[in-house]
Amino acid sequence: AGVTMAKIIIVYDSKTGKPTEISPLYSESLLLSFIEWIRMLVNEHKNITSNPGVALQEAFKKARELNESNGIPSVILFFSSGAHSSGPNPLKIAKKFLESVTIPIICFPFGQNANQDLMNAIADISKGVSIGIRTMSEMNQVVDEFETWSTSGGY
What we know:
Elements: E1 7-12, E2 19-25, H1 28-44, H2 52-70, E3 76-80, H3 90-97, E4 105-109, H4 116-125, E5 129-130, H5 140-151
Parallel strand pairs: 3-4, 4-5
Antiparallel strand pairs: 1-2
């Protein structure tokens, strides 16, 4: 018998860092719908301010709440260019939070000019991975990496 892993997708507003949508993920086919939705968001959020530090803070809080309430480990999928034009530095946020807990972060730096170093550093300190996405055609890597990671237990 396999291990059942609950999957919940929480999406954060790139300007405020506040949660905008929470959705349970009951099957892998929903992951494909999620990818299509990410493509739409990328197009909508071009050339606007970015606050990934606050979004990461909120993601850490929610991951901790979920773990404390049901004991199921969490992973954070962090889609960002790695650039922050407002709010706290996301690497500092990750370092501070990860002093007391282990929550892997799978970083997906978007775009030709993404800050790969920052996103790689966040993935490294969280014992996660970083997968650069320069074009939308590379988005299929997201599905493959997530499936590999989640079926291996993620730890």
